[in-house]
Structures are given as C-alpha cells and as structure tokens.
Amino acid sequence: MSEEDLEYVVVDPVDLRQSLEDPTITPQPPLVRAKIQKWLCPSEYTAESGDYNKHLRSYCPNTGEWLRQSVQYLRWHDVGETALWVNGIPGSGKSVVAASLANGFDKHEHAPVLYFFFRYANVANRTPKQMIRDWLSQLLDHSTLLQARLKDLLERSMSHESVTFEEFWTPFVEAAVALPKIYCVADALDEMEPGNDWILHKLAELGRQTPSTLKVLLTSRQSPHIEKVYKEPLVLSINLDRSLIDHDIATYIHHLLSDNPAMHLSNEQSKLIE
Q: What global pTM score does this model have?
C-alpha cells in the first residue's frame, strides 16, 4: 500500500457537493493535490508583488459603481448571456477593474474566482498555456472531477511542458461547467504573446457554455485584432470612456490627497479637480 493510499482525506463543503453530484469521484488526498500543483507549475499569482494584489491595492473605494450598474454588466452578471469584455485606452483602469471585481466576487459570492493577468514583459504571464495552468491551479481544490482528470494526466505526462493546451483546456471546461457557479477573469488580452489570437475565440466560447453559472470577464485595450473578434452578440462590451471614468479619477485623486496630511487642498483646488 502506498503513502497516497494511507493518507487521510478531509472533505470540505465544496468537495462534498462535488462528490454528491458524482458519487463515483472522490476527493484526492492532500499529497496528490500537492503533487498536481507542483506539476502544474503555476505563476506566483497570490504574491503581494503580483499583478492581482498590485492592482487591488490601487482600487479606490466608491469608484466603478457606474460599471456595476450598467445594463451590459447586469446582462452579464444577473441574467447571464455571454462573456463580458471591458475595454479602454491605456491607463483607463481596466486591470484595477478586473482585480476589484474578482475580489468582490471572491468575498461575496461563495464561488471559485479564477484570474490571470497577461503581461508581455513577464515571461510567466504572456501565453494562453500559462493562463490555463494558473486557472487549473486555482480551481483544483474546488473540483473533485478536475482532481481526477489531472491526476490521470500527470501519470501519463512527465512534465507539464509535454501537455498541449487542449489537453489542459478540456478537463478545465468539463470541471467548470459542472460547478454551481464560477468566475473566470482574464486581464490585458492585448499583452499576450503575438500569434495567439485563437484564444480570443476560445474565451468567447467559454463564456457561452453555461453563461448563467460560468461567468467570463475579459479586459483589453481597444486593439483592432481584438475588436474584430469581440463584437456583439458574441460578447457583451463595456468601454471605459473618459466621460464615464472622469468622476472615478477625481475620487481617486481626492483619496490619494486625503491620505497625505502634507497635502491640503483649498476649496478652489478641490473644485478644479471636480
């Protein structure tokens, strides 16, 4: 009998829900899960210096409410139609929106929230295969089905490098659509390594799988090759237009200055910012 067979398995509520849906699949022991995580070799997505936490720290309270109250957002979040694409010029706050929304889902919706921030300058964050490995890592503890599929894949593959994107993608989709609810966030699609436009279609298709339960949120600049693909009704779209974010910018500036006692604005200066 192996060490894996002897290990005690603690079933958390999410695992229990999954095993009740499919009684033939039981949770993998912690040791097996740890081996799968190591084999996936994800990025350090929870690091304080990582993009998620960096952009989350930049979020200013009381900003972005207009977006959450917009018709397109409600059609995506409440009704469930297809993926949501948030787009805008550089510096319009797309990544902060992605991080703050992901954080809100995680805190209030009791559902797995998967995220990936594409960054071309970072070799660990610029390809679709790196995205799917991070998503698999983040989803692993929430799905006994995924644990079983990846355990089989690990046993057949010496390295994650020998596994194709499709071999990762197929069990991911299978596990994601089986969950009561899940959020998948992919930020800065325009910063992907060139030659990967096919993933734009994959992500849009993912958003149309079970849109009432599988929520796909995408962000990017208004790049022509992305705009060509992401047109309604394939995806819902929200543009971070200057006229819409001006109030958020003013709120952010006030927030920064109020946190700095050395700076004191006159009434005239405050009105100028507004």
A: 0.84
Q: Which residues contact 136 (CB under 8 A, 6 or more apart)?
A: 40, 42, 146, 150, 168, 171, 172
* HEC per residue, 54-115: HHHHCCCCCCCHHHHCCHHHHHHHHHCCCEEEEECCCCCCHHHHHHHHHHHHHHHCCCCEEE
Q: Measured in Å, how far apart are the chain's first and last C-alpha atoms?
A: 70
- Residue owning tokens 């902060």: 96
Q: Is the sign of the CA dihedral 220, 222, 224, 226 positive or negative?
A: positive
The low-confidence residues of the chain, meaning pLDDT below 50, are 1-21, 249-250, 253-255, 269, 272-273
Q: Report the run of H or E that residue 272 belongs to, with start and end.
A: helix 267-273
Q: What is the pLDDT of residues 131-177, one digit of tens each?
A: 999 999 999 999 999 999 999 999 998 899 999 999 999 999 999 99
Burial (0-12, 13-18, 19+ Cβ within 10 Å), 71: exposed
> Across the strands, what pairs with 238?
86
